[in-house]
Every structure is written in C-alpha cells, then in structure tokens.
Design a protein that fits this description.
Blueprint: E1 2-10, E2 19-24, H1 32-42, E3 46-51, E4 60-65, E5 70-71, H2 75-87, E6 97-104, E7 107-116, E8 119-126, E9 132-135, H3 139-145, E10 161-164, E11 168-173, H4 177-182, H5 187-193, E12 202-206, E13 216-222, E14 227-230, H6 234-247, E15 253-261, E16 269-278, E17 281-289, E18 291-300
Parallel strand pairs: 2-3, 4-6, 11-12, 13-15
Antiparallel strand pairs: 1-2, 1-18, 3-4, 4-5, 6-7, 7-8, 8-17, 9-10, 10-11, 12-13, 13-14, 15-16, 16-17
Helix pairs in contact: 2-6, 3-5
C-alpha cells in the first residue's frame, strides 16, 4: 500500500534551515512496527503519522517517532504538522487565526495557526502539561560529560535542572557561546551518568546570544533517540520556558523569549517562546515558529505481518 508523505523544514522561513520533518498526512492502517521502520528510513529527528482523533472534539491524532523510539510530545513535529496540513489543504483555515487540537501521548495539544494572504505562515503550540522540575547530576560530572572544564558551566542562576512540559530534558547553562560551541558529548560518561535519570536528552543554553539575534542560544543532544544533535527542539524549548516560568519570570503577565538553535550544525532555527503567569503560577507555555515545505512523494509499504 502506498502512503503519501510531505517533508518540511520547521522553525525557519527558508529552505534548508530549521529542523527537517516528515509527515504522513493519512497513516491509517500502519502498525507500530511499520511506523518505526518508516521513521528509521527517513532518519530525521522525527517523523509524524497523522490519524483520526480518538475524541471527535479534537482535530487529529499525532504519533511521533524518532529513528529509535516513539515520543509522547515534541515541538517541531506539532508545529510542522499543523503547517503541513494547512498548506496541503488537509486543514481548512478559518481566516487569519485558526485554532486546532492535536492528540499526542502526553495529552491534548492546542495549536494556533496564523495566516496571511490565505496562507499559513506561523503555528504556535501550547504545552500539554504544567512545568515540572527535578534535580540534575552534579555540575562537575556534567562538565566532564560535555568535554568542558567546570568553569564552562554557569551554576549561579538555578541550573542545571531537569525540566518538562510533556517531555523531560536535562538543562545545563553554559557561560558563553564559545563554551556552547566547544561542547562535545562524551558518550561513555553520558551513558553512565544518565543511566537511571528521568531523561537522557541534554539541552545546553547560554544567554550569550546577541550575535544570533536571540535571548538564548542552545544545542540539544539526544543519542538515545537516534539523534546526535537536533537542529531545533520545540519540546525542549517548552521545558526551558516552563523552567523560566517557575524560576525567573515575574508573578504575572506574559514573557516572550527568542531561542536560536542549530547554528553549530548549519541549520539555523528560530523558536519563539511565551510563558504566561497568573497569580504567581505558570498558566501556559507556548512555542511557535514557521515552516517551509520541501518535498512530497509516496512510500510503498509491504503488508503488515
């Protein structure tokens, strides 16, 4: 049986930037094993399989696979799927603003699509879960894991910590962009240090991002998911936004941050994060960006065993 696919570059406004994504707009009939095989074949950070929702009040159900595993929630697949479905006519736009809800394993994910001239140009997700934080390993051990001297880490602003808004990431703050560029994951230390941790995904951030036109410059490593380094990670941006909401944002109002990612691997990406707080509590974390369609075609699937 043949299945249509569309690829897009997400969290960018130009082709060959951002994070590549493959979307199968109608994945009905595919077994779990087949979905994982397709994700391995594309070998992108994630591949999305779009299905009818379980709840008719929702728009679609998304199943998201890395080359190695299914994940409960991810940002660039959510944003990218919304813009791909809108661009291909699978979703009908309702003027300048269209609101939809995707079902993901972490929970319902509201998405707002913004349009201009009848074309979808931006999508913003709301994280499916309130932020949670847990302790991280000791900074000296993390520095060794990142092939950095301990002085390369910043530990005076509350990090490192593990944070999640639906998918957890170990967030480590580095002193400057030079340390960010030097960071290299030592796989032997990484395997030992995070063997029993809440997450194995490592998200590096620095506030030294003026040259990137952003508030933060980041990198993300996820070898356990089959992704050595990710060009743009919306789920991590949501987790970091949640952390900022808990640790740094004022008690009320909406704070906006711009995150630059992918510069070290030649895939510049721009992620826009909003953190809304009411009466001292994080009410919502949102992550948005654009996408560019790149290719489309069909994949021939053998019958499931």
């Amino acid at each position: 049986m043949r299945y249509r696919f569309v690829t897009a570059d997400v969290f960018t406004d130009r082709i060959f930037g951002g994070n590549p994504l493959a979307v199968l707009p109608d994945a009905r009939g595919l077994a779990d094993r087949q979905m994982q095989a397709v994700a391995r074949e594309f070998n992108l950070s994630e591949t999305v399989f779009v299905l009818p929702p379980d709840d008719p009040a929702h728009t679609r159900k998304l199943r998201i696979f890395t080359p190695a595993q299914e994940v409960p929630f991810a940002g660039h697949p959510t944003v990218g799927s919304a813009l791909v479905l809108a661009a291909t006519g699978a979703l009908e736009l309702a003027g300048e603003t269209t609101r939809i809800t995707f079902e993901e394993r972490a929970g319902p994910v509201p998405v707002t699509i913004r349009s201009a001239g009848g074309r979808a140009v931006f999508a913003q997700l709301t994280a499916p879960q309130a932020p949670q934080v847990r302790p991280a390993p000791e900074p000296a051990a993390l520095a060794a894991m990142l092939s950095l001297a301990p002085s390369g880490l910043r530990t005076d602003a509350g990090l490192p910590e593990i944070a999640s808004c639906g998918f957890p990431f170990l967030i480590v703050e580095l002193r400057d962009a030079a340390a960010l560029g030097r960071a290299r994951l030592d796989h032997a230390i990484w395997r030992e240090l995070l063997a029993d941790a809440w997450t194995k995904e490592v998200y590096l951030v620095t506030r030294d991002a003026a040259g990137a036109g952003a508030d933060f410059r980041v990198r993300m490593f996820a070898p356990a998911a089959g992704v050595e380094e990710d060009p743009a990670t919306g789920g991590a941006a949501a987790a970091f936004g949640g952390w900022l909401g808990l640790r740094e944002a004022p008690a009320d109002g909406t704070q906006r941050y711009v995150i630059a990612q992918g510069l070290e691997i030649g895939r510049p990406s721009r992620l826009e994060v909003e953190v809304e707080k009411r009466a001292g509590q994080v009410a919502a974390v949102r992550v948005g960006g654009g996408a560019v369609l790149v290719s489309e075609g069909t994949i021939e699937m053998p019958a499931a065993d």
